[in-house]
Each structure stands twice: as structure tokens, then as C-alpha cells.
Amino acid sequence: MTTTTSSPTHLNPAVLQASYAVRGPLATKAEHYRAHIKAKGDNHDLPFKSIVTANIGNPQQAGLDQPPLTFFRQVAALTEYTPLLDDPRAQDLFPADVRARARELLAEVGSTGAYSHSQGVPAIRQHVAEFITARDHLPAELAADPSNIFLTAGASQGVSLILQVLSTKTSGILIPIPQYPLYTATLAALDTNALPYHLNEADDWSMDPQSVEDAIAEAHARDIAPRALVVINPGNPTGSVMQKETMQAVLDICAKYHLVLLADEVYQVNIHDPAKEWVSFASLARKNPTEPKVAIVSFHSISKGVTGECGRRGGYFELLNFPAEVTAQIYKMASVGLCPPVQGQIAVDCLVRPPKPGDESYPLYEKESTTIARALKERTETMVSKLNALPGISCQPSTGALYVYPRLYLPQRAKEEAKKRGQEPDEYYAECLLDETGICVTPGSGFGQREGESHIRLTVLCPGVDEYVGRIEKFHNAFMKKWE
Amino acid sequence: MTTTTSSPTHLNPAVLQASYAVRGPLATKAEHYRAHIKAKGDNHDLPFKSIVTANIGNPQQAGLDQPPLTFFRQVAALTEYTPLLDDPRAQDLFPADVRARARELLAEVGSTGAYSHSQGVPAIRQHVAEFITARDHLPAELAADPSNIFLTAGASQGVSLILQVLSTKTSGILIPIPQYPLYTATLAALDTNALPYHLNEADDWSMDPQSVEDAIAEAHARDIAPRALVVINPGNPTGSVMQKETMQAVLDICAKYHLVLLADEVYQVNIHDPAKEWVSFASLARKNPTEPKVAIVSFHSISKGVTGECGRRGGYFELLNFPAEVTAQIYKMASVGLCPPVQGQIAVDCLVRPPKPGDESYPLYEKESTTIARALKERTETMVSKLNALPGISCQPSTGALYVYPRLYLPQRAKEEAKKRGQEPDEYYAECLLDETGICVTPGSGFGQREGESHIRLTVLCPGVDEYVGRIEKFHNAFMKKWE
């Protein structure tokens, strides 16, 4: 077709560089299989009954069907269609606290159809600040400040915004390997430098401060100024929860090298091991300040935890120790996008102010959230133990987040076959897994790993874990045998 | 404060360059005034009773209170809190067609809390394609294709995405002057070249193809390759509706210079003059193809028209005549943001499939949308005529969109005073207007204008137009007198 379109060679070269594995070719192939099964019914010719979507942390999607928390959805319905608040026929349909919350939010928001303040509805930011202050047990003089809270369309949008503001050609952003590919994709599109530091798989994917020091030294040798450090805690894809001592060491490094700390803390509620305590970087930095103080951006989201409201696109970030001139630049860029979705902002309000004991909604809320948390914990433990029982697989315990991230020790002949096909070994493995079992996972090459290593990331969101890990076992044993 | 934060001089220099007038310092000052009035009640010391927000096209915001269309909100409530669909107590609360639509959408979406396809829910894209085909009276062989539709978080996000993909250092994007500052802000942040072409104020802000040719020649002289041409039709801030002949000339220029046409058509429903007919660029390009065919991106939104659902963040763009490799790059970047808000997507479905005659919701929908359209038309005409009656103001008729954009002929001494304060003359005028009357407008310098000119943009969304244009009249006469 001859048209006036820029051919790809005329496009933004930084965009051409970017890649994003979580929604890459395997995910697309899985969608085609799903459509095929839907169209053909029982007459399809695929060697599996259904697609298992284990490639993306999307709890409420079809087939996973994690139920939304009722409180969130009742507040959403009343704020969307406000005549329900006063219609006598609707009086019995909503608990008193839901009705009160909807009225309170509407008084602040006006209409969910109006642009809000670009930084988010002031009252909701106030509630986020109160949530942080309570969560981190902050004394009044260290309380969080709503003017430093930015509501966002999911944490992803916040991360993109901050990376955009901080990036320059001659500086770089330190990122963990493995990492959530939002970081590499966004940095590539910004034409700036991703500076990888390696997590320590053998030690539960812990963060080794020395690996950060090494990455900084390497950047300096290449005349690149490290400007910020990304930490994902709990880890994605690793499931690792950081220890306080390591976190303090990270803060010390940020102080020493004048780094902004980007704390991706969206999985803060997903802790599966009662022995692990999650604490925020901001709370440590507030209570035990370094000299100079570390500037921190802390990201949170409604998409993870037990909420799982990915499709509503809500989240926030808090800026700590940012000078007003930098905050003003961040605000300016936020304002170009006008505002985050108001219904996502309302969900953030529900996240930071859930029903409390005594509220009419509390018993149901408590039951729903406990049920989800228990299922996530049990599935995680089952998956790790079943995967570890397979030959050629070793899987670190996943104590947080929504993923297991096993390492694959693949036969040499399988690696050669992958190379022949122009794929990484774990891409080849993941594609065979999809083709033969209908299970869609994300290959480790999309998250980054050391040369020669292979991993896959599976979410812990799929029900029927015995059945579907059974499919993996069968496939894996046959695969290992075929290529041994 | 000593912290590890990058000082502004360490930030992305392109971000520092960007500016966005619609939510600039005047809007912030207006918010402070509003908060002051709210806090002090009747005891405030400001010389006006209330803030009139005429700076941004945000129909449902407090004080404007354009009601949402009931059909949209009923569908939203049922898709958010699905137990209402089956609860016998809720049977009378929603019309049959609303219930049917909610069930149909839920069958496609699953949960509003799940990430959708990154390009948007396939069934909703199918409905958008059918809407375009019907709106543009396309024969079957020219029908719109859902695989070329991308749902977005408002048109702004779509524009940013497309500009990001098309921008390079050595190329540029042709933009109208005056323009909606999303374009200049985004292009500045992308560190690419905005190539201005001037609209013809004396001829109802029409587009003069020669001015585009001139801008292209100037770009070539600077060794910049023009890559795309932005047209806003109906115009923002101008209110101008393009004639078919001009549109064909634009398409010919795009074909001649191999330009992608970015057609910002978000005000397509806001036509105040029955003699003006709005047609889409894509329909002309389909029915009367040039050689080569012009690649077009057409943007639409739920935020404008009579819908005014800004806060939900919904919209779409259609790609026409784009090769698959370029579409794939656009898809990749869309996928990094995961998906547009699902409730915004649902509102797009309502936009492109409103109730039709015979549906239970139709009479109310028809009444609500007609009432809004009539109010917008009447206010526009009143404002233009009252403004034109003032000395030192001339205002072109605004036949489309949601704005009037009068030119100000300010006294020389007022200009000198502005210069002393480091402001553009129209910025100074707009700030005095806000300080003395509480009316917040956007100065023309934020949209771009010729050296020495002054304009302001006012939305036509404020009720009580006689009273508030009365405030402007009083202020304006005093201002002109003071500085004459």
C-alpha cells in the first residue's frame, strides 16, 4: 500500500527500540487461541481445553474471575448514577456506610464526569496522606502531606511521568534485573540509559548493595551520571520481600550518590509469609534520615493487593524530600494529561479508607479480602513446591507479590533449537508450553537475566492450581525428555 | 532543603521547555480564590461572589453542572455493581435497554476491574467501526475496520501516543496557530519541532492552504522534514468549522508532501450553525482518494459533544491507510500503558451506540442531549454578540466547538504595564479580569498568536451568561478607560 505514512524507518528511533514482553507475541498468540476456542466450541482442534492466562497480573480477567470487593463497586455505582442515592426503591440496596461514602465523595468530586485537579481530588489526596501516616506510624511532625501526593491512572502512568521528568541523554536510571519491563520499555522510549544491577537469586532474590555500587561504577566509567534507583518491593517478578537492613543500605547508597529512589511498592499488601514484615522506604527515610535526605517517589496502585481493580486505572505516588521547583515540573507534565480517571481516584479512596470495624460493610469486606489473600498465599506455596519437585527447575520461595519465578535448566539441544528459531531458550520453552497446554507465561528474557540463564514468570492468580500445574508437569517432563 | 533530588537543572531539558496554559498559573490562582471563598463563606474579602471557570472545557465541573446523560450513567452503575442486574428490588430502577446494554457489555468486558486488550475491548472497537461507517455513509467496501481503532484515556492520551511514535529530532509536526496547547506541550517534551502555520482570523479563522505550504517551505529551509499535519476541526480555540473544499486542499497537501494527517475531531457534535455541515477527513479521503493515499489519524472523545464526560477519560482514534508495521509500533506503545480505563471504554460504547427511537431510554436521551446542545448554541451566540459590542474587542462567530476566542485591542499603556510585570498583554488582562471579577479565562498567548496580537479564550459552558458577560463588560470598560 502506498500511503503518506512514515515508514517505520521514519518513526521515533527510541520507540522502535522499546520492547514490552508482558503483552508481547506470546500474549497475542494466546488471545488467538482463546478466540479460536470460543468460535469453534467443542470442535476446536487444539490439544487443550482452555487458555490459562498466567502471564499478567490481572486478577479479575475472564477465567481468573477474582471477585471485586463489594464495597468498592457499591461506591462506584452510587457515584456514577447518583439518583440511586435518593430513590426510595434503592434504599435497601446499599449499606449505610457505602451511601455515606458516596455522598462524601460526591461533595468533593462534584461529578465523576468532570476533570478533577490534575494532581487528583484534594480530599482524596488528603485521605492518601492520612493512610500513609497511619500505615507508617508516623508522628505528627513527620506526617505525609497531601500536596506531595499525585493520583495517577495506575502506577504505570506515575512511573512513566517520573521517568520522563528525570531522564536526560547523559544520565541513567538504575534498575533491578530481573525487572518489570515497564521500566526498560519506558526508558528505551525516552532514549535514556537503563543501568542494570543484578538481584541475588541464590539468596531469595535479595538485593545486594554491592551490585548497585558496581552498576554505579560502571556507569561512571561510561560517563553516564546515575540519577535514580528503582527498587521493586515486594519484587516483580521475583516475589522477594526486602529486609530492613538492606533497605537502609539502599538509602545510604542513594544519599552517597545523590540518587532519587523510585520505590515501586504496589504489592505492599501481597505478603504471603507472616514472618516477613513489609515496611515502606519512606517510613525508614523519615524516621532515620540520611545526610543528605533521600528524595523518594513511592508508587501504589488499586490494581494489585486484594483489590485487583486493574481496569479502573487508579493509583498514586508520594514525593518525599522533593524541592518545590521539581514538584512543579512534575505537576506541569501531569496537567498536560488533564487528570487521572475520576472513578480510579474514587477506588484509591476506597483503598486507603476501607470499611472499618463497626461499619455496616465491614464484615463482608473483611471476609472477601481475607478469602482472596488466603487463596493467593496457598496457591503461591503450592506452585513453588510443585515446581521445585520437577527436574531442571528451581524456584525460590515467593513471599510477596503475585508471581513465582522459577529458573529453568534447559537441555543444550533445546537451547540450540531455540537459537535456530531466533528465540531465547525460555521464549522457545514458553511458546511450546502455550502451544501444547494452553498455559501462557512470560519468559524470563522479557524481565532480564544473566547471559545463559532461563526463567519463566507465572502469576499465582489462576484457580485450579493442581490441574494446571499438572499440565505444566506433564509438558515439562516431556520437553526435558525430548531434548535431553 | 538538602536532598538527593535532581535540581531542576538536572531534569529532562525537554520537560523544562514544555508549557501548558490551560492549567497554568491563572487556573491555580482561581483555585486558590475558590478555596478562600469556600473557607470564609460570606466573610471573604474578594471583590466578587464566585469563581466562573471559563478557562477549560469541563462541562460537568462544579458551578457549570452540565448534567450527565442518564443513559451513560445507568450503564456505568450496572456494569460497576453487577448484582443490581439480578436483584428483584432493582428491577424498576433501570430501563430495559440499559439492562440489556449492561449485560451485553459485561459479556464482552468480563469485569470493569480487569485490564482489557491494550487497544480496547474488541467488541467496543467493532461498535466504533460501525459508528464511523454509518456516520460517514461508507459503502461496505470502504467500511471502517475495528483492528484500526484504538480506544484511549481521552483524546489527549491518543494524541500523545501518536506524537511520541511519529516524532524525531530532525522532523517536525505542522500545527495550527492558534492551537490547543496539548500539541505544543507534548512536542516540546518530546524534543521535536513544532512547525506553526497560521489560521486566518479575518475569514472566520479559516485554514489557508498557502500558510501550510509556507510553513513547509520554512521547515525545509531549516533542514527539518515535516512529517505530520495537525488540523483541529471544529477548531479549538477558534470555533471554526472547515469547508469541504479546504479539507480537500489539505488532503492534497498531505499527499504532495507525504504528511500524516492528525485530525483532531473531538468537537464533531458541537455545531451551532445549521448551515455548517461537519464531515470527517477520513470520509473525504476514503471517497476521493489521493495518490498516494493520505494516512490519517482521527481522534474522538467522550469529553466534549453533549456528553461532557471528561473525568471518565474515554476516547478513540482511527488509523486510516497505515501500514501494519507502523500500527504494530503504535500498539506496542499502547501496551506499555496496559489499557485505557474500562469505564471510559464503556462510555465510548454509549457514545457510538446511543439509545435509538423505540428504545425505552430514547425519549429521555433525546431530551437531555437536545437541551444541552441548545444551551451551548444560545450561549455561544449571546457571548459573541455581547463581546462584539464592546470597544476594543472583535470576535469571530463561533460555529463549532465549545469556545469563543475574541481578539483584544489593548491600549499601549496596558501593554507597557504587562511588559513591566513580565507578562504578555493578554496574560495581564486575564489576570486583572480574574482578580476583579472572579472569571477565569485562558490568555491567547497560551494558544499562540501573531506578534503583537492579544486574545482570550472563554468556554461557552457557564450558565448565567448574561450576568457573567455583564461582569466582563464592566471590567473591560474600566480596564480600557484606566489604560487609555
Automatic annotation (TrEMBL), chains A, B:
Superkingdom as given in the UniProt entry: Eukaryota
Keyword list, A-Z: Aminotransferase, Pyridoxal phosphate, Transferase
The name this protein goes by in its record: Glutamate pyruvate transaminase
Organism annotation: Calocera cornea HHB12733
Lineage of the species this protein comes from: Eukaryota, Fungi, Dikarya, Basidiomycota, Agaricomycotina
GO biological process annotation, one example: L-alanine catabolic process
Family indicated by similarity: Belongs to the class-I pyridoxal-phosphate-dependent aminotransferase family. Alanine aminotransferase subfamily.
Record's keyword annotation contains Cytoplasm: no
Chain coiled-coil ranges: none
Cofactor: pyridoxal 5'-phosphate
Subunit-structure text: Homodimer.
GO MF annotation terms: pyridoxal phosphate binding; transaminase activity
Residue ranges constituting the Aminotransferase class I/classII large domain according to the UniProt record: 95-462
Keyword presence, Metal-binding: no
